[in-house]
Design goal:
The chain is mostly beta strands and about 525 residues long. The protein folds into 5 domains: about 5-140; about 150-250, Immunoglobulin-like (Sandwich), CATH 2.60.40.10; about 260-335, Immunoglobulins (Immunoglobulin-like, Sandwich); about 340-420, Immunoglobulins (Immunoglobulin-like); about 435-520, Immunoglobulin-like, CATH 2.60.40. A 6-stranded parallel β-sheet has the order 2-4-7-10-13-12, with no helix packed on it.
């Protein structure tokens, strides 16, 4: 889901909604510009997604508001497969195709109260001089001025339990004056807000700025009680520019809905131990405590989730269950022989672009069946040039795509890196990856530092976090938006105790977890 974000300079569409599971949803506070094919393509249905319902029950749900969709090299918004929806309080201008192109004959797009780039309104189906509208688009009552200041709550409806102190994030942008200052006033209908209700916020570049609104829910608040939050924002530079936004805080009674086991799979040796932890989540996916019963095959497990493997090898299961609600979760345990052996080879980098005659150092790491570092004398071979026994590749004089191959002595295990020999660049550079990858850290085990590498094929907001054996967050190594590319992060565990830790990446819909071992 996109909320308060910049989507720009993509080679295709900025955002695609529907059509496949990995496609993105929309939201508010967007700034979508300079995308080659267009800004937003509703390729398929909205599915379960809509931003909000409108005050007028007859209007379709809103999917874009308080946003800017400008100067794209195609349609601003194209609808091929979605049902009816609404867009309002958004700048739709300067797009080389249509501002809105609705080819779905059964859908109506409610696009009232938007800025079309001209005070006369949209062209195409309209009679104005702004961006064109095509198809069944309702565009009357357009804005005669640009949308400038917008304020956006991180959630439209925040569900909380009684007796809880919580907070909600508010983002503020000024599309016209990105470094403006704004005066902010917050209020609520039930007087739950904690702290100052008035402040001045300094915006910074096109992402604007934000702040938390803290509130304390009374312990005696009953389920379905609703508190309405309001934020009003006024530009310091131009007090005529104002914005307001609302959100609801709703009380609910938490009930166990699902259970998760961390980790969800492990590989261990015979008679070795592994710690599992179970987490319960309620109907709004918030953590909740619950009574649990553990069961295991292939060994024994304690009431605290500590599994001890038996002497059998193979795949076995760990199950945790809440017997009252009959809700359970299962993890997989693979028990291997305790004798270490080479099981995997990782070569870094996995792809480069290089000029003829230039050299580049590749590094190979071996890992055993438990993902621990395994020392091995690897065999190196290459095409398009020469590689020595230490992994140093020297490019030949022929342009093209070649490879560096590292393998074990009998060739049963190997890993290949792609080499592009080209004269079009003066600097060796890594190739943009085609898939999401989280690599095993190196070295592993380690003391006190190790390197974690990952790859993302497109611009995403990336979270890379480290957890201890109990599933508690230790630190966040990455918490920001990243462009497509290959990355590495060094992690220093100097202040942590020896033991097993886990690192997990979240980038878009890609989530993966790996284990590493700190030995002091």
């Amino acid at each position: 889901m996109y909320r308060r974000g910049i989507v720009n300079y993509n080679g295709g569409w900025g955002i695609i909604v529907g059509g496949k599971a990995s496609d993105s949803d929309l939201d508010e506070g967007l700034n979508v510009y300079e995308n080659t094919s267009g800004a937003v393509w509703f390729k398929g249905g909205l599915g379960k997604y809509s931003l909000s319902s409108n005050n007028n029950a007859s209007d379709p749900p809103t999917v874009i508001k308080n946003s800017s969709i400008i100067n794209n090299h195609g349609d601003g918004i194209r609808n091929d497969g979605a049902e009816s929806f609404s867009i309002f309080n958004t700048n739709i201008s300067g797009n080389s195709g249509a501002g809105i192109n609705n080819s779905n004959l059964t859908a109506t797009i409610n696009a009232k109260n938007n800025w079309w780039g001209n005070s006369t309104g949209p062209s195409g189906s309209g009679t104005g001089n702004g961006d064109k509208v095509n198809g069944n688009v309702l565009f009357t009552s357009w804005r005669d001025k640009k949308v400038s200041i917008v304020s956006v709550f991180s959630e439209n409806i925040m569900n909380v339990t009684a007796g809880r102190t919580d907070s909600i994030w508010v983002s503020v942008q000024n599309f016209e004056n990105v470094n403006d200052q704004v005066n902010v006033t917050v209020s609520d209908s039930l007087s739950w807000i904690v702290g100052s209700k008035n402040s001045t916020v300094t915006l910074k570049d096109s992402l604007g700025a934000g702040f938390f609104v803290r509130f304390a829910v009374p312990a005696n608040a009953v389920a379905n009680t609703t508190n309405k939050l309001n934020v009003s924002v006024t530009s310091v530079a131009n007090p005529n520019l104002k914005s307001s936004s609302q959100a609801l805080v709703k009380i609910y009674s938490a009930a166990l809905e699902r259970i998760s086991i961390v980790p969800d799979s492990v590989v261990i040796g015979q008679t070795k131990t592994a710690q599992f932890n179970a987490y319960g989540y309620d109907q709004f996916d918030k953590e909740i405590s619950f009574d649990k019963t553990w069961n295991a095959t292939g060994g024994n497990i304690s009431n605290s989730g500590l599994f001890t493997a038996g002497n059998q090898t193979g795949n076995f299961s760990i199950t945790v269950k809440n017997n009252v609600l009959n809700i359970s979760a299962t993890a997989v345990v693979r028990i291997l022989s305790s004798i270490p052996c080479l099981n995997k080879i990782v070569v870094s980098p996995d792809s480069i672009k290089i000029m003829p005659g230039h050299a580049h150092q590749f590094i190979a790491a071996g890992f055993d069946q438990f993902d621990s570092t395994y020392t091995y004398n690897f065999k190196w071979t290459a095409s398009g040039g020469n590689v020595d026994s230490n992994g140093t590749f020297t490019a030949g004089n022929t342009y093209g795509t070649f490879y560096v191959l590292v393998s074990d002595s009998n060739g049963k295990l190997s890993q290949k890196a792609v080499v592009i020999i080209s004269g079009t660049t003066q600097v060796e550079e890594e190739i943009i990856p085609h898939e999401y990858i989280l690599y095993q850290n190196f070295p592993n085990p380690f003391n006190p530092t190790t390197t974690i590498r990952f790859a993302i094929p497109q611009r995403e907001y990336v979270l890379l976090k480290v957890y201890d054996i109990l599933g508690r967050e230790v630190t966040a190594l990455v918490n920001e938006e990243k462009s497509a590319g290959n990355y590495e992060v060094r992690f220093n565990c100097g202040k942590f105790s020896s033991g097993v830790y886990f690192y997990q990446i979240r980038a878009g819909n890609f989530v993966q977890t790996k284990k590493f071992l700190l030995l002091k």
